[in-house]
Amino acid sequence: MTLRPVETWMTDMDGVLVHEEVPIPGATEFIDRLKASGRRFLVLTNNSIFTPRDLRARLLGSGIDVPESAIWTSALATAQFLGDQRPGGTAYVVGEAGLTTALHDVGYVMTDRDPDYVVLGETRTYSFEAITKAIRLVAAGARFIATNPDPSGPSQQGMLPATGSVAALISTATGRSPYFIGKPNPLMMRSALNRIEAHSETTAMVGDRMDTDVVSGLEAGLQTCLVLTGSTRREDVERFPYRPTRVFDSVADLVDLV
Ligand SMILES: [Mg+2]
Question: What's the predicted TM-score (pTM) here?
Answer without folding.
Answer: 0.95
